[in-house]
Design goal:
Two copies of one chain form a homodimer. Chain A is of the alpha+beta class. Chain A folds into two domains: about 140 residues, 60s Ribosomal Protein L30, Chain: A; about 180 residues, Phosphoribosyl-aminoimidazole Synthetase, Chain A, domain 2. In chain A, about 35% of the residues lie in helices and about 20% in strands. In chain A, the strands form two sheets. Chain A has a seven-stranded mixed sheet, with helices on both faces. A four-stranded mixed sheet of chain A has the order 2-5-3-4, with helices on one face. In chain A, a hairpin with an 8-residue loop joins strand 11 and strand 12. In chain A, helix 1 packs parallel to helix 3, helix 2 packs parallel to helix 3 and helix 4 crosses helix 5.
Amino acid sequence: MLISDLGERGLLKLIQPYCLPNTIGDDGAIVHPPIGCELVVTTDVLVDGVHFSDRTTTAFDVGWRSVAANLSDLAAMGATPLGITVGLSLPPTLPVVWLDWLYQGMQACLERYGTGIIGGDLTRSSVATVAITALGAVRKDRIIKRSTAQIGDAIVVTGDHGDSHAGLQLLLDPELGQDRNFIDRADLQKHREILISAHQRPQPRLDILPILEQLHANASQVFSVAGMDSSDGLADAIVQICQASKVGAVLDRSTMPISPSLSQMFPDTALDSALYGGEDFELVLCMPESIALELVEKIGRGAAIIGQIGRSPDIILIDDLTEDAPIYLNRQSGFQHF
Amino acid sequence: MLISDLGERGLLKLIQPYCLPNTIGDDGAIVHPPIGCELVVTTDVLVDGVHFSDRTTTAFDVGWRSVAANLSDLAAMGATPLGITVGLSLPPTLPVVWLDWLYQGMQACLERYGTGIIGGDLTRSSVATVAITALGAVRKDRIIKRSTAQIGDAIVVTGDHGDSHAGLQLLLDPELGQDRNFIDRADLQKHREILISAHQRPQPRLDILPILEQLHANASQVFSVAGMDSSDGLADAIVQICQASKVGAVLDRSTMPISPSLSQMFPDTALDSALYGGEDFELVLCMPESIALELVEKIGRGAAIIGQIGRSPDIILIDDLTEDAPIYLNRQSGFQHF
């Protein structure tokens, strides 16, 4: 059955069970912001053929990824989700089952992070487009901004980078990496699954917020955390934080957060994928080193201190093990939307 | 110059001056909800070729209309705007000047209603799509819902209906109405302009909120207001309110809110346009009759009591002046998005 067969009211009936109770039915949805909190709002648009395609992404994964991208933006601000609105444009020739799977994917990701759909709009278009706006709440003194990194801060990443990009490459070209004969078949399959899953089901790092809250509560001195998420690539995130904070950074090649799967499957391009691949949806956070050490320990696998904020405006990646010249990072190699 | 020539960073530079200061630059924007207020969130998606086209709508008007539609949803909930986010998908072949005019139109409408852009996303697509989410604040005891209309309530419309639909017809077929020889040329031109302007520059009725607030403050008894906006047509609004409130309504043909321009230019179809045309962005409100009379007087031109909420589930339009049978209203004739 196609969307055009179902009609508008049939579509709304299909969507309604996926929305939080008592939110649908008026011109707008009501949200109760917690007392004393600021509200954070963030918008992301995903377009068929640009951000996803049938070749690499099921409708379920489109739903998951579109929600994950928005929740990651909330996490990057230190905010806990209150709900999302979904503005959908769909071709009438799309099968209804596609829409159903899209919502199942969105709901799966939303439920995992304890939130839901509170409103939206549904309209016809020649190209499927998912425009999500997420609302979150954050205590005023816990807002994470890009512009407040301090000289001397340690730079923490919450997990590995480059896996999502490598996963996309594997989806686009299933032959890729099959020639790596030194890996046994079972290992190869395991690495493939890890990388593809990183692309299809990214995990927004909302789990970092209670850990940070605990560090704030236990700290002998007040500290501030600067940062953003790495959705447009690790290099992009570091450059943006440095530019917004008017500082520079020195990164250490040996600490780059590269997973065993990535380094074994793509040894030659692993560093480039980690720096410029994007869509890893990890957090890049700057804070005093003593706090950073505690944070990395509490997060565990994948988290690392990768460098330090410095006074010089340059952002350089140095390699203590080799004689290679340092790499100067910039945003040029990141994903460009136009 | 085309959007593809400017590149992503050039585009962001072009858009930034249109955003409220201190809102752009992080993964999300910070909003300060007023203490003691509920937050209202509403989303509308406008698609090129579905909701607007170069034949009938300049980029400025696309911007104005897309903002107006969202602010109207806030007004319909009783909420004062706090800001909007704009999720834009654009073909790279679009001229940059189109984007500039779009933002000028959005800003003109936003400024008129004392609010602004606080965030958004910009991406490539084959079809121009404007997804706006508006945030507003409303006191808990002032929320306007569809489901709370009471038997005996008077039904108020805040202005004329059908003009927007007639204006669209005139834009699609400029010859229309030219044969109405009994109207002099100057009058004809004036009526045309009124109808076309109703389509191109709809006015969300946020001005009604302070009037309602004054009525609440002066009322000897607490009263509640139910309602919604008439963006999908007057008949649709009344039917939706009645269905949500589990009541019916009796409407009076002689009080239908039809402007002199509409009745003179389109005497045969004026009633149909008023009932089913849509996109008038007026409010349809239900409240005790004594309050309704005061409200209509304070709003002035165009506002009217058009009927009463009744116990019978039917929604009928009666005509006391003729012997015509009553018309039973339903939503079937309204605008269907699929």
